[in-house]
Amino acid sequence: MTIPTGDITFLFTDIEGSTKLSQKFPDTMPAAMEIHNNILLKSIESNNGFVFKNTGDGFCAAFQNAGDSVRAAVEIQTNLLNENWKDAVIKIRIGIHSGKAEWNGKNYMGYITLARTSRIMSSAFGDQIIISNDTYNLFSESNTLLQSHENIRSEKNNLISLHQSGDTKISFWDLGERRLKDLINPIKLFQITAPGLRENFPPLETLDARPNNLPVQLTSFIGREKDIKEIKKLTVDNRLVSIIGPGGIGKTRLSLQVAAELIDQYSDGVWLTEFAQISDPELISQTTAKFLGINEQSNQETIITLINYLKDKELLLIFDNCEHLVSACAVLTEKLLQNCAKLKIIVTSREAFRIEGEHLYNIISLSHPEPNEVNTPIELSQFEAVRLFIERALSVSPGFKIDNENAPALAQICYHLDGIPFAIELAAARTKILTLEKICEKLNNRFQLLTGGKRTSLPRQQTLRAMIDWSYDLLSHKEKLLLQRLSVFSGGWTIETAEQICADEEIDDSEILDLNSLLLDKSLISAKESSGSIRFFMLETIKEYTKEKLEKMNDVYRKHFSYFNQLCNGDEMRSKGLTQLQWIKLVDTELDNIRAAIQWAVEKNSDEACDIISTTGIFNNIKGYYKEGLQTCLKILNSSLSVNELPKVKVLYTAALMASNLGNSADAEYYAKEGLRVAKKYNDKHKIASCLNVLGSSINKNLERSAEALEYFEEALSIFREVNNKTEIGVLLFNMSTTVNIKGDPKLVLKYRLEAMKIFKELDDTHNISLILASLGVYELRENNFELAKNYTEESLAIAHEIGDNFLISVNLVNLGCIYSGLNQYEKAAELLERSIVIIKEHGYKESYLVAVMYLGEVFSNSGDYKRAIELFNESIQSGTDSNNDYFLAYNYFNLGVSYFKLKDYVNSLKYFNLLKSDKDNSKLNISNEKLKIAEEYISKLESIE
Question: How would you label 41-55 residue by residue, b for 16+ Cβ within 10 Å and e otherwise?
C-alpha cells in the first residue's frame, strides 16, 4: 500500500488496565492478545490504514483519509465488544487526530501531531473513541451524507450536537473544548458512537478533570521524554523533588509538563506558584497563598493559614524560580511538608534547597548533534534540540525547511548553543531574517545575536545575556572570580588543575574546592565521574559570557599554558613517576586544554608555541593523530609570525614526522631538510640527528633511495650513541631494519629489531614495544611461521588498543588479515582488512591504505573473486603513485598478472608479468625470488598459449 504522508489522520489505541489483566489472567492473556491484535490489524488494513508501530498493548496507524480512520475505529470497537472472551476481557481506548507528518523510512516525523494523538487517546476510557475537531471537520467535509440530527442533553445537562451519517450510522457527541496534558491551547473533542457501542463514560481524563492553575502554553513541548518519565517516578515515590539546572535549560516548562501528566493522582489538583517576580523573602508565604486562591486571615500568620488549608489536601505544588530566594523557599517547603501529610512539592531552581527529604534531578541540555558528525536532515531531526529549533523557526518563517546544504549549519548552531532551549528558541526566531549559515557565522557574537525574547517576559528572559546576568549577579565576589578563571579551560578540569591554575593572592588554593562546589550547586558548572576521577565542565554559552569578564592579560592564561606545556613533556612527567601509559591517558584526557594552550601560545609567544607543539607531537605520533599533528605545525610554519630559527627546528622535525607517517614523502623531505639546515647552522647535535632520522624515514619507501636513507640513519645513530639517547637509538635500529629488509637481509632485520626491543623494554616504552612486536609479527609471517606471527601481532594489538594508537591498531589488523589469509581463512581475513581500512581512511594513513587494499585484493584473489581483486590491486597502485611510494609496485604487478590469468584474460596477464620482468634488475623492484620464479613460469605458459 501507499504510505500516508503530508496531511494524515492518526489512530492510536491502548488496552485499558493491561498490566492488571496480565497479572490476573497470566494463562489466557496471550490468547486474548492474539485475538486483539488480529481484530485491530484486520480492521485497520481493510480500511486503508498503515500500522507503523505496535507498542505491545496498542497500535499506531496512519490514514490518508479521515473517514477511513473513523470507520476503522468503529469496526474495531464493535468487533471487540462482540468477541466471546474466555475470561480476560480486553477493552481499548482509541484516539484519532489529523495533522501534518512525514514518513522517514522508519517512523513518522511530526512531533506535534503524533503527541496530540497520543494525548487524545490517553484521555479516553476503555470502549471509547475520541477524535479531535481537526478530524471531525475533515470527516464532515468528505462525507456528503452527514446531516444535523436532534440536540440532546448529556447527564450534566450540557447541550451537545449529535450528527449522523446515513450509511454508517456513525454519531458524534460534542464534548466541548478540553485541555489536554500537553498544556497548549484547548481543543474541541468529540466522542464517536454507533449502534452497539457503549455511550456513557466518566468525564474525560483531561486537565479540566482536576482543579489546577496550570497556564495554557502557546507552543508545544518538545523532547525530554526520558526526563519526564524519571521525574514522574521520583514524584510518585517522594514528597519533594527539585529540578535543578542552569538558566534557560527549560526547568519551568518541564515541571509543568510533569505536573500535567500527574494531575490525575491528586484529587485536590496541581498548583503553580511563581516566585520569579518577587525579591523579598518575606513575601513567599503570601505569594503562595495568592496562587492557591487562599484568603489571608488578619489575626493569623500566613504560614499557619497555608498549613491549615493544605494539611488534609491531596495536592501537588510547584515552586518555580526559587534560586534568588533559596533559603526562604527551603524554610517554607520544609514547614509545609512537615505539617501536610498528603502534600507533594516540585521545585525548579538553579540551586538545591539542601533540606531533609529533597531528591534532586539535574536537568541537562537537549540532545544535540556532535560537531564532527555528518547527519542527513532526517537523522538531524532525531535530536531534541533540532526538533525544537525547527518548530520554533516554522512559527516565524512558515517556509523554513532543512536540506542537505543547510543541515550542517543547523547542527553547528544546536551544538554551539549547548542544546539550551532558551538560546535555541532565540536563534530560531532569527530565521525570519537570516539564513542558518549566517546565524551559525554570527554565533561568535551570540550575546548580540540572541535577543528579542517575548515582550511579556521578565527582562532576564528576553535576551541570552540577561538570562546569564541573573545567575551571575547572585554570586559572591570570589565565586565570580573563580567562574571567570575557569573559563580558560577547554574540555573540563579537575579540582587539582583548578587549584594549580586559578589560585592567587585573591583566592587561596585551599578555597578552590569549596568555591567550585558552590558553583556546581548553582548549576553554573557540571560534574561527570569517569575512571574514578571527577571532572567539571562549563557550558559553552556560560564560558563565552565569563570570558568577557576575564581580563585579557590575566595571568591565568599564562598559568594555564605553563601547566599544560609541562604536562605535554613526557620525559618530565615520567621523571615524576608516571608510566608512559599513564602519561598518554592523561594527555588524552586534557587534549582540548592542550589545544587551547597551543592556540594561546601561537598568538602570544611563538617560541613557546614551538616548544608545546614539539612535545605534543610525540603524543600525536604515539596515538596516530598525524593529520592533527601536521595541521598544528602549520600554524607556525605557514604563519607570518616572527619565530626564532632554533625553536622552529623542533616544529620542522615534527611536521616532517607527521607528513612522513601520512605518506606525504615530498613534504616530509622538505621539512626535514629545512630543519637539518638550521640545526647544522647552530651545531645542535640532537636536532641534527633527529632531522637525519626523519629525513631517512621520508625517503625510505622509495626503493631507489633506500641506500641514501640508510646513510642518514647510520649518521643519526652515531650521534645518538654519542649522547646516549636510548629511545632514539631504539627508533633508529627499527628504522634501519626496514631498510635492510629492502636489501633482502632477514638475519640483519631480526638482529636490529631484537636489539630495539631490548632497549624499549629497559625503558618501559610501551608504544615502541608494541611497534617492535608488530614488526616481529610481519617478520615471522614472511617466514610462514603463522602461529608465532599471530602471537606477536595479537600482543601488539592489545597494547595498541590500551594506548589508543590508531595507527598501530590499523597496522596490526592488516597483519592479522594477512596471517588468516595465509591460513586460508579468507572470510576472517577480509573482515580484519576491511576493519583496518575504515580506520586508515578516517585518519588519512596513505601508506597503510595502499598496503591494506593490496592485501585485501590478495584475499579476494585467493577466494576466487578475481574481478574484485583486480579493482583493489589497481587502487593500490594508484594510491602508491599519489604518495610517491613504489615499495609494493612489484607485488601489485605480480598479483594483477595472476588474477588476469585466472580470468583467462591472457593479454593483460602477460602485460603485467612483462612489466615485472622488465623491472627485475631495477632497484625499484621489491619482490621475493620465489615470486619472480613463479612469474617466469606464468610467462612461459602465456607464451605457449599464444
Answer: bebbeebbbbebeee
Q: What confidence score (pLDDT) does residue 946 get? A: 61
Q: Is the pLDDT of residue 148 over 50?
A: no
Query: Per the structure block, which three cell numbers stand in for 648?
Result: 622552529
Which residues contact residue 46 at a Cβ distance below 8 angstroms, ignoring those fewer than 6 apart?
72, 75
Residue 457's CB is within 10 A of a number of other CB atoms, namely: 12
240-285 pLDDT, tens digit each: 999 998 888 889 999 999 998 898 889 899 999 999 888 899 999 9
**Domain identity same for 396 and 342:** no
C-alpha cell at 339: 505539617
Among 23-27, 102-106, 752-756, the range scoring the smallest mean pLDDT is 102-106
Among 466, 501, 523, the domain-final residue is: 466
Mean pLDDT of the chain: 88
| Domain CATH number, residue 936 | 1.25.40.10
Mark whether 157 and 41 lie in a shared domain. yes
Continuous segment of H or E residues that includes residue 641: none
> What's the CA dihedral at 632, 637, 640, 644 to 10 degrees?
110
The alpha helices in 94-203, defined as continuous H runs, are 111-122, 133-142
**484-488, 532-536, 915-919: range with highest mean pLDDT:** 484-488
198 φ/ψ angles, rounded to the nearest 5 degrees:
-65, 140
Q: What is the rounded CA–CA span in Å between residue 111 and residue 131?
A: 18
Distance (Å) of CA 664 to CA 579, 626, 838: 32, 11, 20
**Domain assignment of residue 569, yes or no:** no
Given a cut of 90, whether residue 890 has pLDDT beyond it is no
Residues 164 and 245 in one domain: no
Domain count, the chain: 4
Domain extent at residue 436: 377-466
pLDDT at 919: 58
Q: Tally DSSP H helices, then E strands, for the chain.
A: 42, 19
Whether 217 maps to a domain, the answer reads no
SS3 of residue 126 by DSSP: coil
Note whether 356 and 420 are same-domain residues.
no
